[in-house]
Amino acid sequence: MADYFHRNLEPALKAALKQFPAVIVTGPRQSGKTSLVKAVLSGSHKYISLETPDIRAFALQDPRGFLERNKPPVVMDEIQYAPELLSYIKELVDADRDKMGQFVLTGSQNFLLMQGVSQSLAGRARILELYPLALSENPKHRIPAVKNQATAANWMLCGSYPELHRRKELEFRAWQNAYMSTYIERDVRQILKVGDLNTFSQFVRVLASQAGGLLNMSAVSTETGISVNSVKNWLSVLNASYQTIVLPPFYLKFKKRLIHAPKIYFADTGTLSNLLGFSDSKQLPDGPQSGYLFENLVAGELFRLFANSGEKPAAYYWRTAANDEVDFIVEWKGKFHAIECKFSATPSPAHAKGIEAFAKEIPAAKQGIRAIIYPCDATLAKSLSSDKLRIIPLSALAIAKTPPELLLDSAA
């Protein structure tokens, strides 16, 4: 595949094929799942798409006949269109549990897909999540290497969906608008059966205005005219289909009074900047929302970094009523790693105030790295780093493919 971008998830996918009878690759629409499985498995697995109407009809009307005709090893793309197949796949897997990598299933709608998986393939399948391109997967066709505020702004504006980077001639705002329309029309109608899609569109835009900050469901309810329960239900669909990320607050029996509301992020900064009405990257560096957009960028990169390694650690934020705050607390390998991010090219000791306050509340044995991520010069970052505080340049995110490469090696 000449236009395929190699993905950091490839090693995890290959390893899973040797360890599980079934592997499920899920993630948002257009994140590159089909390209990934075709590139990695074209020589070993038959490929079939259940999005094709006649193939889907055959699978639903005669599942045993369908599976007899499409024997493993096989890739079944968009399995959420025929979830009834999962129980029949379970029969085949159970008939030969020692045979690994029999079925590779892909699907975009996590909410519907995972219902079927939990009922039919629990303990038999490895679940991997593929997000749109990470900075380290950037082919640089559209955006050069991300090293400073200007290139970070370009990435935040364009976003990370592979199609935008594969086809340089695409106008990214038109593509993003079409993507959201398709997502709302197909996925939202199917899952939520929302009658008024305009209200749902307004709901998504109100959420975008809160991205990087505390999620105020009552305010969303007031602005959209829907109930708080509907806000929760609609948000759960956005989360399940990988459009948003909700970060809960961190608790560890702190003496200080803590903030209880979750924080919300969008998985793709291009989607977010489009919803916020940005059309030029020059608007971002000095804009009032630049810090939130950068925090959103870092949140997405951290989630991608772990997901591409086949891991899903617990992640939180920490904020006290006295305004001590840490953007991200990542619980990984028995330690709590405190990560702050600042959209500034000039690292400052004042930016470490929240991290230092958090460290005082954590037992020494549980303390991981303390780090601040900046869109700054890598040489400057290394010179300012110490054993107590790592200064991580954004360029480190652009080369890191596994968590240790960022958390442990980036500023060593």
Structure in words:
- The chain has 412 residues and is α/β, with parallel strands linked by helices.
- It has 2 domains: 120 residues, P-loop containing nucleotide triphosphate hydrolases (Rossmann fold, 3-Layer(aba) Sandwich); 270 residues, no CATH class.
- The protein contains 18 helices and 12 strands.
- It has a 5-stranded parallel sheet with strand order 2-3-4-1-5, sandwiched between helices.
- β3, α5 and β4 form a beta-alpha-beta unit.
- α5 runs parallel beside α6, α7 packs across α13 and α11 crosses α12.
- The longest helix has 21 residues.
- It is globular, with a radius of gyration of 22 Å.
- 45% of the residues are buried.
Question: Quick recap of the structure?
Answer:
With 412 residues, the chain is an alpha/beta fold.
Keywords:
single chain, 5-stranded parallel beta sheet, 18 helices, alpha/beta, 412 residues
